[in-house]
Amino acid sequence: MYPFKDEVVIIDHVQFAADGNWEDVQIVRRNDPTELDDLSDWLGQAADDVAAEVLFLNEHHEISGFFGVRQQSLSGKDRTRSWLNFTEKALSASKIYFKDLVKNTLPTLGFPSHIPKSELTFEMGIFNFWKSAEPMLLGTTPLATIEDMCQKNSAPVWFSEGHDAPICLEYVWYDPAHIWVSQIVSDKVDNKHHVDMKKVKNLLQK
């Protein structure tokens, strides 16, 4: 089981990053063709390692999570055409069943039209601060790994002290492609986002 599996998601926008630099993203919103043109220009000069995330909103119009994919084997016009197609498919509806979003978008990059069935691993990190704020690599046993890191005082500072940006739990696959589904697991208190372990446990026990 993974987040949003049987749910309808509200699409906000698509964001792109090169070389895993989520601190500097290229954004495409719905109904803004100029941003598609900007994306085409960006793809023309971006590094080989390009990834995209489709952002979801909750009923309060806050980011609730996202679906991401990395594609490194395409180049030139094929890469630009595939990512533009991916983006157009992702933004074609404001609300859509998550499984249909996956089915519509992954084949544009040459991947199967479903979430992988390969080994699932977990990470926890800061939304759009994946490089500058050290993520927690949780392997295949996330709760046990979190507990072990806390006992050894090896968790990143943000885990106990919070961060300015939301914190998310990420479900990650690497075969046949690097694909991830993330859900926000923090609450905002006094202008800082803090991990809510109850949310983490509830999510992992689904």
What does this structure look like?
With 206 residues, the chain is α+β, with helices and mostly antiparallel strands. The protein has one domain. Helices cover 29% and strands 33% of the residues. The chain has helices at residues 33-45, 76-90, 98-105, 142-151, 157-161, 197-204, and strands at 8-18, 26-29, 50-57, 63-71, 95-97, 121-126, 136-139, 167-173, 178-184, 186-189, 192-195. The strands form 2 sheets. Strands 1, 2, 3, 4, 5, 6, 7, 8 and 9 form a 9-stranded antiparallel beta sheet that branches. It has a two-stranded antiparallel ribbon with strand order 10-11. Helix 1 (33-45) runs antiparallel to helix 2 (76-90). The longest helix is centred in the middle third of the chain and has 15 residues, at 76-90.
Report the principal-axis shape: globular
- State the separation between the terminal residues, measured CA to CA: 7 Å
* Weakly predicted, low-confidence segments: none
Radius of gyration, CA atoms, in whole angstroms: 17 Å
The largest sheet is:
9 strands, antiparallel
